[in-house]
Amino acid sequence: MDWSVPLTVDVCHSFVGSISTFKIKPVFSSELTPKDDYSLSSKTTLNKVVWVDPAVVKVLGSEIDLSNIVDDLIKDESGKITKLIDDQLSNLDLKKVLSKTWTKLSNPILVNRKIQPVYLLVNAREVILRDFSLSDHQLAIDLSVFGTISTVFDSASNVRSQLEYPPLVLGSDNEPVSYTH
Fold it and tell me: What is the pLDDT of residues 27-68, one digit of tens each?
């Protein structure tokens, strides 16, 4: 997935007491790979730095363009920057993302209201993650749930609050799934 974030940098000159501002937009690529414990691993790289406003500093009436120096500093520090990004992405827990869906799926689903209410109860054995993508700042996940379905007549006694997630199988035939864009 390619992404960028606009940054505004203020440089304060203690020598003359003025502030210079410039804007950049670093462009990153992140490869996200889900793990079987519902977490993600990522590998992020810095592709380029787009200059919105050049890094021009005014000192004693003259302008000095620091864009090349700042560009080199960002490239030198890109390893630290991408490691911080990867650490944050690895904190994304798919269990939290899926919790609302999982709760609805785990509780009885009303299928008949006539005479006697009938509910279906899903008992999942495994979840297969086939694909995932990001679109319009939304995470789309293609999951298959395998298990058994039971018929119950009393939904209240079959409500489950703290249900364990079943094992996550990655891809079809255990092939790893990753997302890059």
Answer: 999 888 888 888 888 999 999 999 998 888 777 778 888 888
pTM of this prediction exceeds 0.85: no
Question: How far, in Å, CA of 106 to CA of 95, rounded?
Answer: 14
Residue labelled with tokens 């974030």: 5
CB 147 within 8 A of CB 102: no
Q: What are the backbone angles phi and psi of residue 79, rounded to the nearest 5°?
A: -60, -45
In one-letter notation, the amino acid at residue 127 is V
Cα separation of 70 and 22, whole Å? 11
Question: Angle at Cα 38 formed by Cα 33 and Cα 41, nearest 5°?
Answer: 30
**What is d(CA 101, CA 107) in angstroms, rounded to the nearest whole number?**
10
CA distance linking residue 110 with residue 121, whole number of Å? 9
Strand 62-65, strand 109-112: pairing: unpaired
Cβ proximity of 143 and 172 under 8 Å: no
Q: H or E segment at 87?
A: helix 78-90
